[in-house]
Request: fold
Amino acid sequence: MVAYPGGARAVRSAGRLNEPRPARVEVNFDGSPWQVNHQAVELVREEWRVLDRWWTEEPVSRRYFEVVLESGENTVVFRDEECECWFTQRGA
Reply:
């Protein structure tokens, strides 16, 4: 058996998979993004809402968009309605 050379410390420093990151998003009049982190949105592929944990002191209310940027990159952005902030996550 070969030991993992990275050890436990390497796993901890890698961070969470697909962790949301703050994003700079400019929106159209309907609230859909037209620019994400200074890149134009070429296509909005999908939109959905998540309303969860409404019964707790920390509810989740988010509006998600799967977009294709001018670079051809797929990404997912969402607006957290609780803090009124935008975040990005890697897409498929």
About this structure: The chain has one domain: 20-90. DSSP finds one helix and seven strands in the chain.
